[in-house]
Amino acid sequence: MVQAKALVKRFGEFEAVRGIDVEVRRGEAFGFLGPNGAGKSSTMRMIASVSPRSDGELKVLGMDPSVDGPRIRARLGVVPQQDNLDNELTVRQNLQVYSRYFGLSRAAARRKATELLEFAQLSDRADDEVEPLSGGMKRRLTIARSLVNDPELLLLDEPTTGLDPQARHLLWDKLFRLKSRGVTLIITTHYMDEAEQLCDRLVVMDGGRIVAEGSPAELIDRYSTREVLELRFPPGEAAPDVADLAERVEVLPDRVLLYTGSGETALECAHARGVRPLSSLVRRSTLEDVFLRLTGRELTE
């Protein structure tokens, strides 16, 4: 569905995307993870055929965006990071008007709107104005609008940012349903649990480059350990020397993280040498552990 080789995007002297290779397979959910400024959005805009590449090769749906941009865009669905619904129209009208941009007749646009309202669980709000809708409803409407042309490839930029847990899980369910219908998904997200839930494969970007690629499980296995032991100590107390109890130890201002195959064993060893934390927690390694190891904990803008 998407094939990029040595893909580059420059803005003047600044190189936002620095020669990446990406392949997205039909029917999968593919993720781009990375801190702010990593190059995710620039890559997504090139795939969406709205921003020309500066160098390298890019094929989307087997076509070159620099030549076949309109044909590619006709077969894409795009969910932007910020909802850009028309507040002067009703929920139903937002879908019907957008359908007309893709050449649907008025009758077909009405049918498609009814179908998508049911999919998004918005049928009971069909004739309401957009402005009073909750954030979750607006997000579902934005996703529904992106489906009016029955896209083969759906691009979602931070699809659940700012939503409460219930709304996030409902959106996850809708995206699972789309994937089961054969729609290919490309997702950028800052939520590591979302990436683990939704993505079959993903890449981690940092500084315009891909620093890791694989399934969530493969990345955790490659860059982290099976478990993590978290030890919390009183503020201002020096962290004890426990470096020999784990494969890797990370000292943070409020806790010490021990990356190990067995958190319980590491905790027993710490207790045996007199280490007495305020609290301890043994948990499985997550994609967030991988992400922070690869991209660091420093804030980037």
CATH class of the largest domain: Alpha Beta
CATH H level, superfamily name of the largest domain: P-loop containing nucleotide triphosphate hydrolases
DSSP strand tally: 13
- Biggest beta sheet summary: 6 strands, mixed
Terminal CA distance: 31 Å
Radius of gyration: 23 Å
How many discrete domains?
2
Q: Count every helix, treating DSSP H or I runs of 4 or more residues as helices.
A: 10
- Fraction of residues in helices? 25-40%
Element pattern in H and E: EEEHEHEHHHEHEHEEHEEEHEH
- In order across it, which strands form the biggest sheet? 5-6-7-3-8-9
Q: Give start-end ranges of low-pLDDT stretches.
A: none
What spatial form do the alpha-carbon principal axes imply? globular
- Which CATH architecture of the largest domain would you pick? 3-Layer(aba) Sandwich
Structural class category: alpha/beta
Mean pLDDT: 93
The CATH topology name of the largest domain reads: Rossmann fold
Strand content: 25-35%
